[in-house]
Amino acid sequence: MANPLRREVRQLYKNLLHLGREYPQGADYFRKRLNSAFMKNKDVTDPKEIRKLVDCGEAVIKELGTLYYLREYSAMKKRFYEEELSAMLNMGRPTD
């Protein structure tokens, strides 16, 4: 593997490993899957093929970012509507 590509692959692995800490099915599950995916492609030596795999990994990073954003958004939305519903239900009740 060429030196610049080697650095990119290592950085991609580190970035994915960092993002995997927040994975919904758990960090251990993500780490095992990540490791097996990288080991499956460890014998690839063609720079074009390596570049293609790195681009695919960067797409996975974007997908994970979107997944985490949607999870955060749905939690905020749920909290907001629960508070709003609670306020609406308590409007007609007298307070002591």
From TrEMBL:
It holds the Pfam family Complex1_LYR. Coiled coil: none annotated. InterPro entries: Complex1_LYR_dom, Complex1_LYR_ETFRF1_LYRM5, ETFRF1. Residues 7-58 form the Complex 1 LYR protein domain. One of its GO terms (biological process) is respiratory electron transport chain. Transmembrane segments: none annotated. Belongs to the complex I LYR family. This is Electron transfer flavoprotein regulatory factor 1-like. It comes from Salvelinus namaycush (Lake trout). The lineage of its organism: Eukaryota, Metazoa, Chordata, Craniata, Vertebrata. The gene is LOC120031959.
